[in-house]
Each structure stands twice: as C-alpha cells, then as structure tokens.
Amino acid sequence: MWFNQVASCFSALCANAFKLTTMSKVVGVVKTICDPKHNSRNIVFQQQYYFSTMPTVKKDTATFTQTGHGVYILTTKNIYYNLALEDWLYKNGNFDNGELLLLWRNQPCIVIGRHQNVWAECNILDALRQGVDIARRRSGGGTVYHDLGNLNCTFFTSRKRYNRKHNLEVIAQALRDKWKLNLSVSKRDDMLLDDNFKISGTAAKLGQNTAYHHCTLLFDVHVDQLCTLLHSPMKGLESRATESTRSFVKNLCEVNNTINYTSLVDCVISEYFLAHHKHEVTYVDPTLEEQFPGIGKLQDDLRCWDWIYGHSPAFSLRYSANGSLGGITSHLMMHITVEKGHIENIDMELAGCDDSYKELLAEVCETLIGCRFWPMHITIALISMQLHLNSPELWALINKCFSGFLEPNCHIEQNIKETM
Amino acid sequence: MATLARTLLFFTKPRVRLHNLLYQKQRRCGCLLGRHLSLKKQSIASARCFCSVSIRTFHTSQPAAGQMVPFLLSDIGEGIREVNVKEWFVEVGDKVAQFDSICEVQSDKASVTITSRYDGIVQKLYYNVDDIALVGKPLVDIELAEGAKASMEEGQIDQADVPLSTTPELTSAESHNAREKTLATPAVRRIAQENNIRLSDVPGTGREGRVLKEDIVSYLEGRAEAVQSAPPPEAAPVPPKPIVVAAPVSRPTPVVTGKDRTEPIRGIRKTMVKTMTQAQTIPHFGYCDEVNMDAVIELRTVMKTLAAERGVKFSYMPIFLKAASLALLQFPILNSSVDEKCENITYKASHNIGFAMDTKDGLLVPNVKNVQSLSMLEVASELSRLMQLGSAGKLGTHDLSGGTFTLSNIGTIGGTYTKPVLLPTEVVIGALGKIQVLPRFDSNDNVYKAHVMNISWSADHRIIEGATMAKFSNLWKSYLENPTSLILDMK
Predict the structure, then answer these.
(1) Predicted ipTM?
(2) Closest residue of B to A300, CA-based?
(3) Which CATH architecture has domain A55-308?
(4) Which segments of chain A have a pLDDT < 70?
(5) CATH code assigned to A315-406
(6) Strand A197-200 to strand A133-136: parallel, antiparallel, or no bridges (unpaired)?
(7) Chain segment B63-74, per-residue pLDDT in tens
(8) For B385, which residue in chain A has the nearest alpha carbon?
(9) Which ranges carry the Lipoyl-binding domain (chain B) (predicted)?
(10) A296: helix, coil or strand?
(11) Under an 8 A CB cutoff, do B106 and A114 touch?
C-alpha cells in the first residue's frame, strides 16, 4: 500500500519534471506495481509509463496521424484552449490506425452544448460576477458545470470505430474494479451511481472521417455552485433549443474518500492500457502554437461572443414591472425576440399612463431593435437616446423591467487568466 | 482507330478487357443486348451488338453535368433513423464543392456534420432548422456542375477495411486502376488509363491524397520535360499539403472579395449612426497644435516604475487627463453642456473625462468621474479598470454616461492631425496623434531630435469661441511641456 503511494508520488514528480515545453526527447520509466487486493482479477501486473514528448507535427503539414492507442493529459486548465485542442485534433487528426484518449480538467466554467440557448441554461450574470467562464462546445448534448473536481475524458477514433457505450464501459469497469462502485450506464449514455445519481454526462461530434466522444466524471465538484449556476433566472423564455435534462448528481469522493484526481487518472489510464496493450502517456500543452499550428485562431473562435451567445437559436422573452410615471402607477410589459444574439423585435406596452409616453416608448423600441442582447449594449443604446436625462422615471422603469439584467455591477479585480 | 482499339483490348488482361468493353460499349450504345452479353463474359466479337444508333447513356454512378441530384441523408450509424436538423451552412443558390459542409444535425447528444458528395449548386433544402430529417430521404437537391466529381464509395470502403494494427500498404504492380487503393474519381481514372499512368505514381493534391485531373496533367508535363531534357528521371515533386497558418493576433478579418454582401446595421454601430447623425447638427470648428513631448516621456518613464510598484499600469493617458482637468479649471465653459434648442448652458461641476476605446464590439467611450479630485495614480487605476471592463463587455450605465469632456488617443494606432466629431451634450473633443521623432530647433538655434505629438480639438462653435479654445490648448500644452507647472497648479 505504501509502495503504491510512494510510486504514485514519484510518478507525479516525474510527470511535473518532464512537463515539457521544449522539443527535447526525454524518457522516464516508472514502475507501478498494483496491489492485488485492489484488483478483482487477482493478478499482479506491472505498468510502465513512458513519459514522452508530443509526436512532432511536421510544420509544412497540419495533419497529425495517430498510430496505436495513446493517452494525452492536458496541462492547461483553460476551457477555451482545451476545447480548441479537441477541435484541432478533430480537424487535423487522422485516426484510421489509432485512437486517442484525452484527460483534462478546467478552472470553474460552464460548458453548454452546441445547439443550446445560453440564457435558458445558466445564470449568466452570476457566472460572470464570480469569474466563471462560459463556453460553448462544438459537440451536442446538454449543459455541464466544470471545476477542478471534474475529470473530462475525450475518446478520439475514426468514424467507423465510434462507439460511446464501449468507451463508457471502459471507465465504468475501471471504477468498479478499483473501488467496487455500483455503476451503470443508462440508455441516454449517462453514468449512474446506485442507479440514481448522475456522475457522468456524454456528448459527441461526428465528422466524415473522425469522431470524438467526451464525457465528464464528477469526483469532487462544488455541487452548490453547480446547482445555483445551472439555473436560469429568466422567466417567460420560449425557445426551440435543445434543453438540458436535470438530474441529481453526486461526487465519487462522497462514496469513497480515496478517490481524487491522481487516483482517478491512474485508474482510467490503467484500464485503457490493459485493453489496448500500449503504455504511453504524454503531457500536452494545448497553448503551444508550434506544436498545434492554428490553435490560437481556434481558441479565439471559441471565445468570441458571437459563438458563445450569438449562436443560441432564436428565442423570446417577456418582462414586466410596475412603476410610477408622472405620479401615476403604470405597468410596463415587454416582449423581446432575440435572434443570433441580437434583438430582432421588441414590443413595449405601457398601461395606466397618459399618451405622452407612447411616442417615447416607440422611439425606445426602434433604438433597441438590432441591438445586441447584452447589458452593456442595451445600456449604450439607451444612453444614446439620453433617456436617463430626458425621462429618468421611464429609464428606472425599464431598468426594473429587466430586473437587474442591465446593471450587472461586476467589477473585475483581476484579469481572467489561465492558471497552470 | 477501331482496329487499334480492338488490338489494345486483345493485349490487355481479361478483366480490363471486360471493363473497357463495357465502357466502350456504353459509350456507343446503351442497349440491353450489349450489356447482357458482356455480363456473360463472352468474347469481344460475339459481345458486339449491332445497334448503330448512339444513345447517350445514363449511368447511376457517374451523374452527368447539369443534372439535378437529390442528396440523401446517409446512415449515421447506431440504428438511428431520424435526426434533428440544427444548422444549415448553405442556402439555395450557393455553390458547394465535394466535402463542403452542408448542415449540422443532432441525434441523441451527437452532433454530426453532413458533407456534400457532389460539386454543384444547391437548388432545394428539404428541411428547416429544428425539423426532423429522416435517414435515407433527400436532404438537399444539388444541380451538378461541369466535370462534377462524386465521392468514391470504393475509396471509403478501402479505408474501413484497414484493421487497426496494420498500416495500409498499396497493392503493388497491378495495372488495373480500379483495384488500386489510390483515391480518384472515375473520370480521373479514365484519363490515367488512357495515358498509361499508374495512379500510385501520381502525387495527389486533393483531400486525403486524392488524385485530381490537374495532378495527372502536371505529372504528364513533368514526364515530357524529363524525356526532353534527358536528366535522370526525377520523382514528381511532393505537392505542398494544405498549410494551416497561425494567424497573427492583430490581423483584421479578411473581407470576402468578388461578391457584394448586404447586412443590416446592428449593435454598437447602429448607436454610432444615431449619435453621429445627431452630432452633425452641431457646427464644429477645429483647432490643431503640436506638443513637444520630451519632458512627458521622461516623466512617464519614472512614473511607470513607481506605479508598477503599487500594481497600477501607467500609460500617457493619466498625464493627459490630469493636465486637461487642471486646464478646465481655468476655462469652465469647455466643461459645459447645452440643451437641445441651445437656449440654456449648464456648467458642470465635475470633470468626467471620457476616453475612446476601440474594442472588437465597436467604439466605446467610458468616462473617469471627478478627475479634478483624483490623483494621477488614481486616474491611472480607474483607466485600467474601465479598459478591462470594456474589453470584456461589462461596462455599466454609471461608467458610460455622464461624460463632460472627451479625449481620444487615436495615436496609439496612428495618425497625426484628425478631425474628431463631438459627442452630443459635450462641447469639446480632443484627438491625440502619434508621437513622432522630428528635427526641431532648440533655444540655441541648434537642430535636435524632438518628440512631437499633434493635438486636434473640435468644439461647438455655438458656445465656444476660437480664442477660448486656443488659450485652453496653450495652457494644456504648457502643462505637458513643463510638467513642473503641472505640479504647481495641482489641487
């Protein structure tokens, strides 16, 4: 038992020492002898992990061919770079003769599915206030919350060999063998603990020749944060976007407190290698442009507002509020249609006040049409009308209607950065 | 000619003969007799049919140009029979090439990109976004272009058959082009066969190493040249594979040339249209000058180090803003606002100096509140806070409204003299050009290297006179050229 710990410490040390940004070839060998008690197969097997550098990508080609089975552990915790690497491998990778398993995790972030509506899936303003990134991935499926207590696994294969159930079984079997967990894979490709709690969600992307399947694995996530952030405060939102299915979640560490990042990664890798008879783990830094030409651009594309928010399918919202206008209590109702992230149409109705405000309302509607559906942009549009000067009461009422949407009041103390 | 053809046929392998026979027969006549006899593998003589009418054949695996072909939704796998159409990448009338993306469909958490099998023009989309599409039914109609290339089913099957552990090896020394694993369309194979070229010898430049017609042509030219000049035969040069170039960060998005594109004006640009149209009603006058920046550059170098110790980023802007605020104390009319009909003037008490920010969203003008009561370090920290919020798209009403005076540092990008446009409700705007190194005369009439920056002011001529503007500008300039006077007047 103690030998295991020493060996895993040593392997972690070696891993950190060999975490490379240079192209020099370094090979380290670590032997890990697994305790037979933890192995239901009752055999002692030796694993040799070779920590090596990335296979060199030729500069004049951008294609990358994978031969045999490989495992990459990504060293950044930036969701945009990690998703960009998936995108890069999907576009440039040739997996006819090989398969790849990526293991990665991120700083707190919310990742929504390709065809989902951001506003309906999470609390955007709270997320921004807390410095939680919001990203949209290229694969389908529902919304998930990531932080350092969540391990992501991506299986890259050729289109012909794409098999989600098989991939999930590899992970489930690994966990069952090591920690005797009661795991099952549901019809929707969710991994359930004790048939009740979801510990893993799945999504996939299929192209002409390449396909990838990625899934999450919750081992020590902040569940409160997950629950509050994945709940949208927008009421009256109608949309035809893919909706997430809510499930009860549980952390693996609650069942067995020896489950942590290191032990989980070890477990998954050993099961993967056992099945495929190859032992090469590579530490990869997705931010290196020389190893992944064009990844900076892919990362920028994933970060841009038009992809994350603007790509939401069309939806409509209803807002209403009561306020005092010229001494009379009035009721303002707004019906906003948003398409491609911009306000396509807005109807405002003011009940219980005199007609002098009707013209002003019409002008407000006309100004807001075409405006990006984002607090700063709506504010700029309304300021350009001098609404806060000409009619502060109407301005206050509109603010109230948007119920805090226009005043995110978030002050950034520090840049959003990637931490290694 | 026919005799030659027949002789050639005789000397080729039986399978080739049959294939060529089929092919030749169908070119002359598509009658059932010819095909039936060929299928029974009879000799050439008996397989000849007697039709002399040349009929244009219809061959399902080689569609002719100009033909409308329904592109069926192919099998996604996993027994899935229907999918949700989520995005269209093409519209009716768009030109598509083989392997271009047509649409994105979603089925049960998997997002699938459907790519085109043909070159041509899209004529009809069978589904709208969010509709359910059925596998095996038409997805789009494509009108085939000339020399249309259909994707090779053969090529795809070749790839699938390769087992994981072995690397694919090209079958060697077979002259029958159809059996080679080199990917090429039937049209290209025919040209290669006519010219007695082995497809494996030709380097392919198409997708996944496909051999294209252009490759065969260049290979032939290369071969002809080699024969003429008689050096040792060189291998055909390896064609450059498509290079993905990492784009530098500041390169602007390339504009699509050759086709006009109209789109509605939205977002911040629409607000700018409104603001600038309103500003046009105000009569502007311009006043420009030149400022010697030697002293400011020295000052800033020192201040930058000091500010960095306190964790604040320090550029030239805090110095410009503070100097402007001090000068405004002497000329309060430049910090005023007039109402719409220009009947009343309001002298604003606080100097809320705005600065122009160019973001990817557009032009933003947040302002620093109460510059008159802030120290230069505080101004610097406010500036960096506002710039961070602005680039992240998180500025609020408080930061965006209430400005009384604006400075635009366009010189960080470039330019010397400009003609800035007022922001409505303000009466003055200043635009700073870039700092240039130019020869100037010093007090002893010697030429020396001076750092010079241009300043261009625009003011509302209904309220502000030229003299007022000039005096203000001179005062501001003197603060910059003699920073000690800045310290003297600092409140």
Answers:
(1) 0.72
(2) B249
(3) 2-Layer Sandwich (3.30)
(4) 1-62, 277-279, 403-404, 407-420
(5) 3.30.390.50
(6) unpaired
(7) 566 788 888 888
(8) A412
(9) 68-143
(10) helix
(11) yes
